[in-house]
Amino acid sequence: MAKFTARVELHDGNEDDYETLHDEMEKEGFTRSIFSENKEYYLPPAEYNFDSGNATLDSVLSAAKAAAFKTGRKYAVLVTESAGRKWFGLTVAN
């Protein structure tokens, strides 16, 4: 199953814009956390996880752009496909 990380920046975005972004990203199938060893970890602000067996870089980018567009702000999106993930200092979800 392919795993992707998306980073979305809203230019001149405020807190309400980012709340809209979070809601729209969720509708597109993104989450704001990742799982490892039966624990859930929150991703840094404005980063999202996408896990899907049939997704491609292009389809994930399109989904993230569709969500960001709905904020009404100009935006930048970076999507990477994971060949493995390591992290340090992420907050464990309760």
Tell me what the structure shows.
- 28% of the residues lie in helices and 32% in strands.
- Strand 2 (33-36) and strand 3 form a beta hairpin.
- By secondary structure, the chain is of the alpha+beta class.
- The radius of gyration is 13 Å and the shape is globular.
- The mean pLDDT is 93.
- The protein has a three-stranded antiparallel β-sheet with strand order 4-1-5. Strands 2-3 form a two-stranded antiparallel sheet.
- The protein has a single domain (2-81), classed as Alpha-Beta Plaits (2-Layer Sandwich).
- It is built from two helices and five strands; from the N terminus they run E-H-E-E-E-H-E.
- It starts with a strand and ends in a 13-residue tail after the last strand.
- The longest helix has 13 residues, at 15-27.
Keywords:
single chain; 94 residues; alpha+beta; Alpha-Beta Plaits; three-stranded antiparallel sheet; two-stranded antiparallel sheet
